[in-house]
Amino acid sequence: MARPRHPRDPIQVVGTSVAAFVGSLPAGPAAVPVLITSFEEFERTFGTAEGETADAAWLFFQNGGRHAYVAGLDEARPLRSLDAFSDTTFDLLVIPATARLSEPQATSLAIRGALLAEKRNAFYVVDPPAGRTAATTVARWAGSFGGGGSSAVVFPRLRARFLSGERDVAAGGAVAGILARTDTDRGVWVSSAGATVQGVLGPTVELDDATVEQLALARVNPIRRVPSRGTVLWATRTRADTDSEWQYVNVRRFASFLERSIEQGLQWVVFEPNGPPLWTQVRAQVRTFLQGVFRAGAFPASKPDEAFIVRCDRTTMTQDDVDAGRLVIQVGIAPIRPAEFVVFRIGMWTRTKDDDD
Predict the structure, then answer these.
(1) N or C end: fewer C-beta atoms under 10 angstroms in the chain?
(2) C-alpha R_g of the chain
């Protein structure tokens, strides 16, 4: 079989706003994720019913979400439910089930969700257990849950009006929809802080300035009622430490978007020998891609050199890496201030001498 021709197409951007929902379902497929593109399709697939998963999906589409995979919760083994997404590509994870499970189960499932998001280069919007209705107890739970740069806790729950009446709902579906809406309207690199929550009557808990500050210290994102603006997502911080380069949701998701785009766009390197000619091609292709992102307004810098750096050479790889066919690309981006770079590394496999034998 002939080797595929070296592609000349530029690196293409990947999607950023496909959600994955895990929760109890009234009917329909459960073990295998089902793609839905509207709440009407959700009802056709799973039936018309109340519940955390249905409410979260409704709020996701109300707030700008367009595509979501839905899988049922295994009530007997809730931790195994996330295994349904092992072969599914998604960008945002929401687990409405954490709202109604016992607190130990909810915490375990949230920890597992954070690990899945980290592994899949996705982002997890975390709903605390519904029983946590005070900022102090939510802050304490968030500390026990931990998480990291690929997850964010939101509080409080929301009040919404449905055909069957008013009820409280988890906020994760709405926040995932807001992130998807921001991606579409402004770009994944833009913060969603200050965005209005659509389709709700308001938060279930009114937060004063002191409580908001308390939540901020605990790295929990408040949802507040703002006069003349309605219900607003007040902040977008991850569970990473405040001195971490991944403390902001948009920075973490922007880097994930770049990493996945570059990885997919450079799949051709598997057919090339790992050496200086390849490194030159890779640097050029990645820089061209990042220049396009720069022109789209993703960076605050006025010139590309202050917006990003790309390295792929002897400084990013050891001789063992080269011999083993491991290509290592180092990318630095300045998403907040010019020339203040957040750096990440991308590893890929190339052809080795053994492959030629």
Answers:
(1) N
(2) 22
**Below-50 pLDDT ranges, the chain:** 1-5
Instruction: Quote the pLDDT of residue 3.
Output: 45
pLDDT given at position 30: 67
Determine if the pTM surpasses 0.90: yes
**Cα(281)–Cα(4) distance, rounded to whole angstroms?**
17
Burial label for 332, CB within 10 Å (0-12, 13-18, 19+), is middle
Answer for the pair 138, 204: CB distance below 8 angstroms, yes or no.
no
- DSSP letter (8 states) at residue 51: S
> Which of 203, 201, 227, 197 minimizes the C-alpha distance to 215?
203
121 CB-near residues (< 8 Å, 6+ apart): 150, 256, 259, 260
- Amino acid at the residue 195: A
Closest CA to 59 of 174, 160, 172: 174
- What is the structure's pLDDT at 48? 76
CB contact at 8 A, 126 and 153: yes
* pLDDT digit string, tens, across residues 130-164: 989 899 999 999 988 777 899 999 999 999 998 78
Spatial distance between the Cα atoms of 326 and 329, rounded to a whole number of angstroms = 10
Domains of the chain, start order = 19-251 (3.40.50.11780), 266-356 (no CATH)
CA dihedral 219, 306, 118, 322 (to 10 degrees): -150
- 56 backbone φψ class: left, alpha, beta (φ>0; ψ -120 to 50): alpha
Task: Note the pLDDT of residue 77.
Answer: 87
In this structure, how many other beta carbons lie within 10 angstroms of the beta carbon of residue 353?
10
Cis before 7 (ω within 30)? no
Residue 36, phi then psi, degrees to nearest 5: -130, 150
With beta carbons less than 8 A apart as the criterion, state whether 343 and 259 touch: no
Torsion of CA 186, 191, 192, 195, to 10 degrees: -80
Which residues are within 8 A (CB) of 303 and not within 5 positions of it... i.e. 6 or more apart?
none
